[in-house]
Amino acid sequence: MQLENLFGPITQIGYLTDDIETTAGFWTQTSGIGPWTRMSGVSMAATMDGQPSDINIDVAITYKGDVQIELIQPLCDSPSPYQAYKEAGLWGLHHVQFTTKNMDASVELAKSAGLEVACTISQGGGVYNYLRGPGVWFEMIEASKDLEMFFGMIKSACDDWDGNELIRDITL
After folding, report:
1. From the centroid of its chain, how far is CA 44?
2. With 0-12 CB in 10 A as exposed, 13-18 as middle and 19+ as buried, what is 16?
3. Domain 6-160, second-level architecture
4. Is the distance from CB of 40 to CB of 60 less than 8 angstroms?
5. How far apart, in whole angstroms, are the C-alpha atoms of residue 39 and residue 58?
6. Are 100 and 44 contacting, i.e. CB atoms less than 8 angstroms apart?
7. pLDDT at 126 (0 to 100)
8. Helix and strand tally (H, E) in the chain?
9. Can you give the residue ranges of the VOC domain (predicted)?
């Protein structure tokens, strides 16, 4: 069973980093993508492996075509999909994301494909589920109209980017 057949195209590729500025600069230097929209100190209430957890991250987002590239810098040691990677110093590709219009149905499909819901986050008008499989993480998002509009503004900035201002900081 292929996940793209279940969930549609990949909408995001997520990377963990210990230094967003250096990683964003390298991405831009090697692939020409940008600008990056950075949100610092993002706090998220989550449920990780059935237990409540408060996650704190810095995040930067850009686009390559229609695919969102996300850089995540974990700032805490609380239980999260990022914790073990941070502790082991494993920086790089972390997950791919699919967008759904029906989270419940998509989660059931994921479970039938052998994935488990490891973490659920409600943040910024969206519901995110991190799905864990053998050696792999998938993120499923059910985006609200507001979140879709927010991502659309970031994508528009990327489509019109003139190569200046590598990172644009915003406050949520």
Report:
1. 13
2. buried
3. Roll (3.10)
4. no
5. 6
6. no
7. 77
8. 5, 9
9. 9-144
Task: State yes or no: cis peptide before 35, omega within 30 of 0.
Answer: yes
**Tokens found for residue 151:** 């991502």
The string of pLDDT tens digits covering residues 130-167 is: 999 998 999 999 878 888 899 999 999 999 999 999 99
Percentage of the chain modeled with pLDDT above 90: 83
Residue pointed to by tokens 């949100």: 39
The pair of three-digit structure tokens given for residue 103, joined into one six-digit string = 């989270």
Q: Which residues of 35-72 are buried (b: 16+ CB within 10 A; e: fewer)?
A: bbbbebebebebbbeeeebebbbbbbbbbeeeebbbbb
Query: Using one digit for the tens of pLDDT, what is the confidence trace for 68-86?
Result: 999 999 999 999 999 999 9
Q: List CB contacts of 128: < 8 A, sequence separation 6 or more.
A: 119, 120, 121, 122, 139, 140, 141
